[in-house]
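Quarterly update from the structural biology core.
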Amino acid sequence: MHATINEPTFQQLQLKYLQRLAEQYPTIDKAAVEIINLQAILNLPKGTEHFITDVHGEYEAFSHVLKNGSGSVKKKIDEVFGHTLTHADKKSLATLIYYPREKMDIVKKTERHMQDWYKIVLYRLITLCKTLSSKYTRSKVREALPVDYAFVIEELITEKPEILDKEAYYETIIDTMIQIDRAESFIVALSKLIQRLAVEHLHILGDIYDRGPAPHKIMDKLLQYHSLDIQWGNHDIVWMGAAAGQLACIATVIRNSARYGNLDILEDGYGINLLPLATFAMAAYQKDDCKQFKLEGNAKMHNSAETVLHMKLHKAIAIMQFKLEGQLMAAHPSFQMEHRRLLHHINYETGTISYEGNTYSLLDTYFPTIDPKDPYALTPEEQTVMERLQLAFLHCEKLQRHVKLLLHRGSLYKVCNGNLLYHGCVPIEEDGSFRKVNIYGTEYSGKALYDCLESYVRKAFLAVDPIEQEKGKDILWYIWTAKDSPLYGKDKMTTFERYFLAEKETHQEQKNAYYRFLNDETVMNRILAEFGLGEDSHIVNGHVPVLQIAGESPVKCGGKVMIIDGGFSKVYQEKTGIAGYTLIYHSYGMMLVAHEPFTSTEEAIQKETDIHADRISVMAAPKRLQVRDTDRGREIQGRIDELMQLLDAYRSGALQQERSFFDGK
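Predicted structure, tokenized:
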């Protein structure tokens, strides 16, 4: 007979947990003080959440929106100073907070009484800091304080009832600061503190990379940001795939950078050596003008010799991409992308292609590296180039650091404070039901599809099993481009067609049915329920630019859905008529903010211009929201309930308090 091991009862498990909790709070007094502290936090106003999406490498515009909190700083200036400051003074104060050093350099050229100016500005900044810090616990404010001035700022923003002549006390501190020539650095410190306190948490809904000139600078900025999460976009995913060494992703990243004249991102931003690729391209396509591979975006910045080189490099890497993608599609039948393998449908003698039942003439018929008998095979020279590029991406310390941030702070979706956040879509069928998607032989839909794909993303970097790791790497490419990818959401990516076919109908990319159901409350409620949310919740979505110029609204389904990609990227602004939307969720409700195009940092400082143009109230809270109304508040309430149980255990004698020295023996 085997001895039976008794399972612990619920009461025994609960007592064991309380014993662990008692290690942190060993006395009634300590547990009671923590309950009081947590109850106080629950009654604070809800912190401001800031939602941004599809920044596409536009560092200057992104940096400006971070500084102004999509109008949060100006709104707070209005609240605090009301009619006591003129509109011009408020604009000037806001610009000072965004760009303190640059603004002071301008002021010093015309202001004759700088000491008076310093004093006035310092009082205004301190007043703002006092108001903003009132939404946080003192410990949270201390975390935010700049190290060099932490003590001084805390003295100035904290009420001191024991000091009778408060005005004289504060004035002495400020006068001393000016006398010892620390006023300017103190103004910088206060301005940065205001920026930080204005927004408690940042949500990035994907597509940090591609098109714009400086995604690496955006990533550097995010590395320093105090509190954020990221929902990956398909452009982020393909860069993650490149960092993991996935060859098709590497080719795609380089092709995208070449197309928009942004190879500097790779060479200067990340230190990736493109010389082997450039040398190969110049040799292989020496006789080719590569006119179908003209550059977009920043191309006008390059001289003619650079442009010629970039166009040849552009074609060379595009051909390698099509070969590598063809290999992947053949290797993974479950991806169901055989119809996107196009190279073997080309008649290399006649320069035509058999495409979806029709025959088309190709705009470019020069293919010196393609073997018609084996069109997806890399030449030995191409193989060598790709292997060297793979090593460069794998050993790029800066890129790996940025991808670690994407993994640590990122996910495919997030549920937060009653909002469902994702970049693209939830794939659905024409009848509004969730589409079943085959991932390595098993079908998934809805939330399960998101969870499965995210697990494979993490396997690409963390799996011990090399087979699972390779499957993870390949799924990164799949998420970038496949018709059933929730981050792409179109029936095909017509990259090949745009280069080689003149017929515009072949360039069309059909969106998933999801986008036709955005105003269907039944379908949107079904999606919310799938992710554990109620009908009063919201979906916050990026990926597809909102064509405001054509009268399209970012608010769908009566305010249940918000599409906040309005064209942050300059490439899109001509057809969107706007420079993007952002969303603010503060203690009074939700506010959608429309932005005008950002011209330059210099103009923002010189002319004191800002880029938030319109504010649309999406949801007004019936009462001012508190921390208790948030996910964090529910966690805190759970902690309070546990501590109350601990108090009961102490008082009932189920647990003994720790005896202190003052208790006697």
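The first helix runs from residue 10 to 24.
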